[in-house]
Design a protein that fits this description.
The protein starts with 9 loop residues before the first helix and ends with a helix. The chain contains 20 helices and two strands. The protein is 66% helix and 1% strand. Helix 2 packs across helix 4. It is an all-alpha fold and 446 residues long. The radius of gyration is 22 Å and the shape is globular.
Length: 446
């Protein structure tokens, strides 16, 4: 029987069996990977489902749960029919024929006519990229658009959901269309921090959520070429981590700061930020996080042309990665798999001038990446195209560049376009080749 609005979902709890919430969350994440879906599932999410706080999962979680428990329906998992849950208005993502992004209710009444009108205008103005911002703003502020005197669990949950929605949309479509609209939820999240919360546990959730939201918005600025904005948002996240004593958030902020410094040509700063992130991450017990930070450090050393230090950092990254996933891995690291490791290593070898070696790693990255994540497929293929062009394989580079142009129909990323422009410049001396000429013509038109 489905759980009532105020009762625990005992059915779902029984299905978890003897596994801990963290172990079960890891099982959910593995099931998601099997079907090419992305969910940021952790022990807290499982707890919210079992307590009845989440009465109906969003569509991504629904697909994963039904894959994990074949032959069952949502009702069999203890959830009421979607249409029976008040406040859950599902909106079709115009970029995808199969995807829908629901507006989280958090036990609020169904959307008022004014709320529905705001959402409708948001979709007409910018498609699915506006959903995260519109959803968070409406969930937190309702019709009055005022921050409550004291934040509660529903506000903390809304901030966390906004972070997940931004990551999901970025994975599919890139950052350019998202960045401007994501800034407003970030301001709201920090206004909630200023308002304070009645419970310390809620205050802690707000600090963590606002900090992760600052990192996410910083990444959107980073990927869309707004480096000064990105630096500001990452610094804001770091300050939030320091104030709240959140080592995980601190490591995340330093990881992104190292990435940004590398892209800005500040290689020494990149190394130092990655090393600071590693110090923050030591107490977290996540080999995958240490692996990513080692790759960030390797990128900085490559930018400084220190091959020995780069190779040492790469060796540490592979050693930590080989330890596998664990329950202590932060949920934001769902993007970091073998494909991302190969891509980051490719960038190291390219910075050291070994383009043929870089191309081998970039090709593996593109081959390993699930096609569901269009942004990363485009990114890895753009890296491959650039490496091939500089390795003396112009026809192969033109083919890869053409593949990226195909993907840019659905991915909006200034970073990827900039990488592709560099490839085009490198291929100009080979424009008499029919394949290269075709690519250069298409690129100029785009």
């Amino acid at each position: 029987m489905a759980a009532s609005p105020h009762s625990p979902n005992s059915t779902f709890r029984r299905l978890r069996g003897q596994r801990s919430p963290a172990e079960f969350a890891a099982l959910v994440r593995r099931a998601a990977k099997e079907i090419g879906e992305t969910v940021s599932c952790d022990a807290r999410y499982i707890g919210r489902v079992e307590s009845g706080e989440i009465r109906c999962p969003n569509y991504a979680y629904e697909r994963v749960f039904l894959h994990l428990f074949p032959g069952r329906t949502l009702a069999d998992l203890g959830f009421p029919p979607r249409e029976a849950v008040r406040g859950r208005a599902a909106h079709r993502d115009p970029f995808s024929a199969n995807a829908a992004v629901p507006v989280p209710a958090h036990h609020r009444p169904g959307p008022s006519p004014k709320e529905s009108d705001v959402l409708r205008r948001a979709f007409m103005a910018g498609g699915s990229a506006t959903v995260a911002a519109a959803t968070l703003g409406l969930t937190l502020l309702g019709d009055t658009r005022r921050v409550p005197a004291r934040a509660g669990e529903s506000e903390a949950a809304a901030v966390e959901d906004a972070v997940r929605q931004i990551r999901l949309l970025d994975d599919r479509h890139g950052a350019d269309a998202l960045y401007r609209r994501a800034a407003e939820p970030l301001r709201t999240a920090y206004a909630l921090l200023d308002a304070g919360a009645a419970r310390q546990s809620t205050e802690d959730r707000l600090h963590a959520g606002a900090g992760e939201l600052a990192v996410s918005v910083g990444w959107l600025a980073h990927d869309s070429g707004r480096f000064d904005d990105a630096r500001s948002h990452y610094a804001e996240a770091l300050a939030t981590a320091r104030v709240s004593g959140d080592a995980g958030l601190e490591a995340h902020a330093f990881s992104n700061m190292a990435f940004l410094a590398r892209d800005c040509g500040r290689s020494r700063e990149s190394v130092r930020a990655a090393q600071a992130g590693r110090r923050a991450a030591r107490s977290l017990g996540s080999p995958r996080l240490l692996s990513l930070l080692a790759l960030r450090e390797a990128g900085g050393w490559a930018g400084l042309a220190d091959r020995k230090a780069c190779e040492e950092a790469l060796a540490r990254a592979h050693t930590e990665f080989s330890r596998g996933e664990g329950d202590t891995d932060p949920e934001w690291m769902s993007f970091f798999g073998e494909a991302e490791l190969e891509f980051l290593e490719a960038r190291c070898w390219a910075a050291l001038g070994e383009y043929a070696r870089a191309a081998r790693h970039a090709r593996r990255a593109a081959d390993l990446q699930d096609p569901h994540f269009a942004r990363n497929v485009a990114l890895y293929t753009a890296e491959l195209a650039g490496d091939l062009a500089r390795a003396g394989a112009p026809d192969e580079a033109a083919w890869a560049g053409g593949r990226v142009l195909d993907l840019l129909a659905e991915v909006q990323s200034t970073r990827i376009r900039s990488m592709l422009s560099g490839t085009a410049r490198a291929l100009v001396p080979h424009q008499r080749s029919p394949r290269v000429g075709t690519f250069l013509t298409r690129h100029a038109a785009v």
